[in-house]
Amino acid sequence: xxxxxxxxxxxxxxxxxxxxxxxxxxxxxxxxxxxxxxxxxxxxxxxxxxxxxxxxxxxxxxxxxxxxxxxxxxxxxxxxxxxxxxxxxxxxxxxxxxxxxxxxxxxxxxxxxxxxxxxxxxxxxxxxxxxxxxxxxxxxxxxxxxxxxxxxx
Length: 153
Hints:
By secondary structure, the protein is α+β, with helices and mostly antiparallel strands. The chain has helices at residues 2-20, 98-111, 131-138; strands spanning 31-37, 44-50, 52-54, 57-63, 77-83, 86-95, 141-148.
């Protein structure tokens, strides 16, 4: 477990460094940095995440046992996104309900069917994901949604 944690931290540092650099284009079409302020500590936590667009929103699928998104629970919070070389203020909120997570995953796989396999989701001949696979995949996931924050609020 410690090796996995060290490997993950090292990978996050590498991707984070690239996303902050002029070379961000290598990863920024799929990865961004999310900076969240801890509710209790007041400390800023920054982590790279894989995202996909859904209209004006950006969605991130995360394992439930990860911790980076937990400060967005409840009413959500303002975050800073490092997205395609620019810092953007956004509003982030978490969806933990399995039904909402399943619906978001189904929408995601309609947009990016090749990514379904990473979640163990099979596509039916019509190209839609299996309902059973979606329900299984949603059990240990959360969806984090980010929307740009307007200058007024």
